[in-house]
Specification:
Blueprint lengths: L9 E4 L1 H4 L13 H13 L4 E3 L7 H9 L6 E5 L11 H18 L5 E6 L11 H11 L3 E7 L3 H8 L6 E5 L6 H4 L2 H5 L5 E5 L22 H14 L3 H12 L3 E5 L3 H11 L6 H9 L6 H4 L6 H26 L2
Parallel strand pairs: 1-2, 1-8, 2-3, 3-4, 4-5, 5-6, 6-7, 7-8
Amino acid sequence: MPDLPGKGDFVIGTAQWGSTYGIANSRGCPDDGELRRMIEEAERHGVHFIDTARDYGMSEDRIGRILGGEAGWTVMTKLSASVCSGEPPDEIVRSSVIQSLDESAAALRTDHISVLLLHRGWQLNWHDGIVWSTLQSLKKEGRVECLGVSASNPAEALAAIEEPSVDVVQVAYSALDRRLVDNGLFRIATGGNRRIVCRSAFLQGAALLGPADLASRLALLAPAIHKLEQLSKREKISRAELLLRFARDTAPGAVVVGAEEVSQLASNLRAWSTSALDDGILGEIASAGQGLPWEILDPAQWSQEGMERGIRKGTKLAERDIQNRRLQRGT
């Protein structure tokens, strides 16, 4: 069993290492020298967890070239989303799952994967669960040690939490996106043995923009960002530090934090090592995002078409599904 990240652990996010990721990313991908300096900076702070994916461009390959399967690091990666497209026969699906795992292992310079997540929560039950059953067989063979799900929304998170064979559930959580707290899913999740890993502490960078810099489709974030900026000035700490410390102090598990350059990572690690915020400040931060519609909190909906579709039906369907499941359990 690999060393899995837990409450209080800092996980390096690497989507930026393979592509220009994040709405506030103006730097693009770091070069190899910058990546090596980031790894060294992380090691100086005792950080040894990395989050990546088959679909993060060259991220896996770059991690593999730098770490070379080095012991002491736990790398979590994700199955390619392309294995679940169209209506292929089961044998083709199984072959695609194995190919994605083999490609990740080769890129990471290892003979097995420590932690493999489904990149989309709906893959868990797709085609009567053929993807998940294939991964369970690969786990029995020792080709992967732990399995998990990266959930895009509360309904997917609940499905993953309720599946006993899931070891790790990755979810979006931030001061602005507290849906899993409000729906009681964090309480349910922490009742089992699985690990929770939280991502998007900065809402893919949107929470770090100024209100005037927000695209029109994200204008509803402006009042929340204004409130966070006021808190930041009052407490004399940056908005990034405020959001990061909030995630660290309130998340039920580890937190994934991306970086494009070593100075950014160093700043985040310094913020991570500071003392806990008091309950009063945490409450004020949490109140900033109250009432935000879910389509604003889901980057997959940030296209105009996606926003309109989500506004029409997404919220009601997701919330109704969660409420029905909770009623069935009597909670």
